[in-house]
Each structure stands twice: as structure tokens, then as C-alpha cells.
Amino acid sequence: MPNLWKDTVAEHRRDVRAAILETAWMLAGEHGVRGVTMGLVAERAGISRATLYKYFRGVDDMLVAGHAEHVAQHFTHLEGLRDEASSAGAGLYAMLQGYARICFHRGSSAASDLHGLVHRGDQHRRNSADLTVLFAKAVRDAQESGQVRPDVATEELAAYSIHALEAAGQASGADEVDRLVDLVAESLHLRVETAGPGHH
User: Fold this and answer.
1) What DSSP character marks residue 172?
2) Alpha carbon distance 187, 88 (integer Å)
3) Residue 50: which of 78, 97, 16 has the closest Cα?
4) Which residue in 68, 78, 67 sits closest to 161, CA to CA?
5) What are phi and psi of 146, to 5 degrees?
6) Measured between alpha carbons, how far is 68 from 163 in angstroms, rounded to an integer?
7) Nearest in space to 169 (alpha carbons), one of 180, 153, 182
8) What percent of the chain is helix, strand and coil (3-state, nearest 5)?
9) Cα(113)–Cα(181) distance, rounded to whole angstroms?
10) How many CB atoms sit inside 10 A of residue 58's CB?
């Protein structure tokens, strides 16, 4: 029974924390970062302010923590796209698509002050470095399989791809995002025989 109680308490804390993060993120999207208060988060999440302070010191802490979880989910998603693909080139193309769509969704849904809060500091630098490593692995595998140009360094191609795809955050729709992905793929001389008509 003690183990069951421990597991139940841990699960409860995870559920409460997840509810807090989801609520804070939603409220920041509705009202902007400075329009969110601890009292508003507690009320919307259905918990007391005293309970809320047991988890987070303030609104900024909640939003940064929520962003960290989103980033972890994005990394898992991109790795899954790469690993499930039929070839290294197809895996890289799937990652290009996946990251472009993440940027598009972020650009269309996040308030500017929220974006500014979570995309700065040491954690953001670590996230950026980890993303570059993830893309560099996919680029290297595609280069080694002869599906990406070999005349430019792996890390340069990875960094170029990431920065170019971030323009999807300003795209007006999915068609524009797809054109951007194809443009980046062409710049890499990416050959993906299984990508379908119009993909290279």
C-alpha cells in the first residue's frame, strides 16, 4: 500500500502541474503575459493560490516551464518523424516539414510578449543547441547516403535549414509553408524518391 500511495500522490502532483501549465499558457495566449496573474491561473485551474505557490513562484516561471515541456514534445515528435521514415533523406524531409509546421503554429498562436519571454536565456540557448544537433544528425545521415549535397559542412546545412524554416512563423497558410519546405529541400539538394510528385 505505501508504494501505491506514493504512486498516487506523484500522479496527482503531475496532473496538477500539467493543469497549471496548460492554464497559464492558454491565459497568456488570451491576455498576454502581463495580463496573467497567479490568482487568475488558480481560479481557472480550479485550485487555491496557496496550492499554486507550492508549484511555481510566479507566472513567468510557469510559462518558461510550459515552454520547456512543449520543446521536449517537439523534439520527440521530430525524432519520431526521422526514425519512422523509409530512408535518411525521407527522414530529413519529414523533419523539415515537421519543424516548419511547428514554427507556423507558433507564429499564428503565440502572443509576442510570450514569445519574447520563452525565447531568451540559458534554457533557450540549450534548446537551440539541441535542435541544431538533432538536425545535424539527420543531415549527416542523408549526406552519407548520398541524398544531400556533400560540398557544404553538415553543421552549416543544419543551421541554415533551421533558420530558413523559422520563416514559416510568418507564413499566411499551409501552402506557403509547404513551398518553403520544398525551397529548403532544394537548397540542400535533397533527393527523396518516396516523397511524391514535386518533391526532390
Assistant:
1) S
2) 17
3) 16
4) 78
5) 75, 20
6) 20
7) 180
8) 80, 0, 20
9) 27
10) 13
Alpha-carbon distance of 196 to 192, in angstroms, equals 8
29: confidence class by pLDDT, cuts 50, 70, 90: confident
Looking at this protein, which amino acid is placed at residue 55?
Y
Which cell is 161 given? 535549414
Q: Which residues, 6 or more positions from 20, have their beta carbon under 8 angstroms from its beta carbon?
A: 41, 45, 47, 52, 55, 56, 62
Asked if 64 and 117 touch (Cβ cutoff 8 Å), the reply is yes
pTM, 2 dp: 0.77
**Exposed, middle or buried: residue 185 (CB in 10 Å: 0-12, 13-18, 19+)?**
buried
Is the CB of residue 161 less than 8 Å from the CB of residue 184?
yes
- pLDDT per residue as tens digits for the range 68-107: 888 889 999 999 999 999 999 999 999 999 999 999 987 7
CA distances from 190 to 92, 93, 155, 169, 199 (A): 9, 8, 16, 23, 9
Question: How big is the chain, counted in residues?
Answer: 200
Pure H helices in the chain: 2-31, 38-45, 49-55, 59-84, 88-109, 112-118, 121-144, 154-165, 174-187
- 90 within 8 A of 185, measured Cβ to Cβ: no
